[in-house]
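User: Can you predict the 3D structure for this chain?
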Amino acid sequence: MEAINLLLVSCTFRREDEPSEPYGVSCLVSAFKRGNGCNDRISTLIEDLSNYENESGYDVDKVAGRLANSILDSGCNIVAFSNYAWSDKLFKKVLSLLSGTKGLLKIMGGPMVVGNKSDLENEYPEIDYFVFSYGEKVFANLRNYLDKAEKFIKDLPDFTDLESPYLNGQIEIEKEGMTVRMELRRGCNFNCSYCRYKDEDRKVYLVGNVERWKAELRLFKEKKVAKVNVLDAVFDASGENLGMQFLEYCKEIGLKADISLQIRPEILDERMIRLAATMPNVIFEIGIQSLDKDVMKCINRGNRNKVIDTLSKVMTMGIRTEVTIIYGLPKQTFPSFKKDLELLSLMGVKKISAFKLQIYRGTQLYNEYMKYKLTVKENNYGIMQVYDNENHDFNKMDKYYESYKLKHGDLGLYHKTKHFKQRQEERKIEDGLLNAVLSKVNFSSGKAFKLLVGKDYLMKLGYKIKGRHLVLVIDGWRLVTVFFCGVITELVDLKNVVLI
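Assistant: Here is the predicted structure, written as structure tokens:
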């Protein structure tokens, strides 16, 4: 075979503070460069769909034509599509425009390569090769797979041997204040019926090693990134090795960037909560989806009481928390959805985002949604989305959430809200306040205490926190965390302590 000239095509919604090349694309490019010959080359075509968005979505024909022309102009002999739900409709259009192009092999991988082989061939008749597995090993040994001429490829990489695209220079952190992505583990061992992000074997793989992610964190600190999004579908929050090591090292090196973690409350233990509570830059992103027992059963979610209990502890400890829920789920009703929002608000969750249920090919719910009498239609990106349910109260959920956002602020843009700005100001005074309070209090060793400090005492110290209280959580002689909480109604004197 002649030298490989591969073009990797991907669509994204890039934010201004993110690197120009997506993390997943960079991993594939790194693998290709590491494993192929010196005459083989790879380039990327990244289309930012946010550049084309309008009220009705975007002009699929226009973008497809642009992509098809760019592919032909590149001179590549192989084009690989990294296909996600939001690009599926677009890529089908691009493939139809490329149909009949001689000397151009077409490969497709990504989350939309699911289901049985005959269905895939019908969905994408122009594709020559489908990659079912994570793609690094395939890209590193692409010539071998093409020589075998096997249309359906599944071959997992050695995850512990994967290179970091940051450490090898594939991703450039161009300036201070950027948002970056990293991963510790890949895969998910849960079985949510609506989720397309899971390996059919439900396995989780360690990516790289401890030294790799420590080096990445040191680089992020050096480059002064603003936020680190850990991509793990479920962060190791069990208090066992990896998650604790990760947060402890972030704290040890004094990483100032926000650290966003995907948390599953059912496996979040006390040790992890206590550690995260000492780190004001840690953000727990928790996909609750629903707190209704019947709904949770339909979508294979966990123990309701455990979820509520754990989330309550997280909020009590003052950990920055963002919660997402879904509406349009099986067995969900307007009263149950409204109750979920009210309960989460009562627990003190300040950022709640609700999303309409989307149904993806290859998921359990894709095969079951008609059983639950859910009515769906394609949205602007070709994704199946619920717009009516068995009780015909989906529109009430939609309108209620819109009014909820108006009342509580745009919770999806929390960083722009008054509460967030107020919280940032509060953090600035905490160091001085702690010293003032701690100088007045004697602690008993070996006990964990929660102090509720009345606003009158705070004002005596010179801190004007109108209508709010200070909560200190102390573990033995060591302060665990400090945070302001607007939901406490009882004013207590500094000498009063309450065992947690």
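The CA atoms of residues 6 and 42 lie 5 Å apart. Residues 431-499 form one domain.
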